[in-house]
Design goal:
By secondary structure, this protein is of the alpha/beta class. The protein has one domain: Flavodoxin domain (Rossmann fold, 3-Layer(aba) Sandwich), CATH 3.40.50.360. The strands form two sheets. The protein has a five-stranded parallel β-sheet, with helices on both faces. Strand 1, helix 1 and strand 2 form a beta-alpha-beta unit. The longest helix has 17 residues. The protein is globular, with a radius of gyration of 18 Å. The two termini are 16 Å apart. 30% of the residues are buried.
Length: 206
């Protein structure tokens, strides 16, 4: 049975465009996969702890003590969730040209030697295989290739890079950019979102 991992990282509620679009994705995905399960994490409203000195020591310990195992319990749960899901949808607003701290905290919890990456005969190896990821990337400005501010987009290269580091390379970005015009009432929200929603639903049903 197929499983979807659904992450939201916006601190906003009903005003959040990324949340609205991930909700559309989940609904369409459930319709296309009757009876399938969804694992949801609300990183924006229920933030994860940042890694600590104790966490780092435990993660690199060759024989973790009971206390170190307890330190890594949440990390293990998060990794188990992403391994259990064959499809992921990530709601990702752009914060200061990159990802929100809430999302970065998740990344730091799940990128772990021996669990999601390792070192084999050929060097670095990502251990997370067979996942398909849809990233719903929302930004106030426009940073697409060919635009004047393309060089300021550190979000997509980082996400592709860090997911590739753990072995996840089937990554699709659905972009909702220039949303400052929506937020400031210059363009109608529903009209703006309509074609993007079509892409989201098509991706979920693919």
């Amino acid at each position: 049975m197929s499983t979807l991992l659904h992450l939201d990282s916006s601190p906003r509620g009903d005003r959040s465009i990324s949340r609205s679009l991930t909700r559309d994705f989940v609904e369409a995905w459930k319709e296309a996969h009757p009876g399938a399960s969804v694992i949801s994490r609300d990183l924006g409203h229920d933030p994860l702890p940042f890694v600590s000195e104790e966490w780092v020591a435990a993660a690199f310990s060759p024989a973790p003590t009971p206390a170190e195992q307890a330190t890594l319990a949440l990390s293990n749960t998060l990794i188990d969730e992403l391994l259990a899901a064959d499809r992921w949808v990530l709601g990702l607003p752009m914060f200061n040209l990159s990802v929100p701290a809430a999302f970065k905290a998740w990344i730091d919890q799940i990128v772990r030697v021996g669990r999601t990456f390792g070192f084999g005969a050929n060097g670095l190896e990502g251990l997370v295989k067979g996942k398909k990821v849809t990233v719903i990337a929302v930004s106030g400005g426009v940073y697409r290739p060919g635009t004047p501010y393309e060089a300021y987009n550190f979000q997509e290269p980082y996400v592709r890079g860090i997911l590739g580091f753990i072995g996840v390379t089937d990554v699709e970005f659905i972009v909702a950019d220039g949303v400052n015009d929506v937020n400031f009432g210059k363009i109608d929200r529903a009209s703006y979102l309509a074609p993007i929603r079509e892409k989201v639903v098509a991706s979920a049903k693919a």
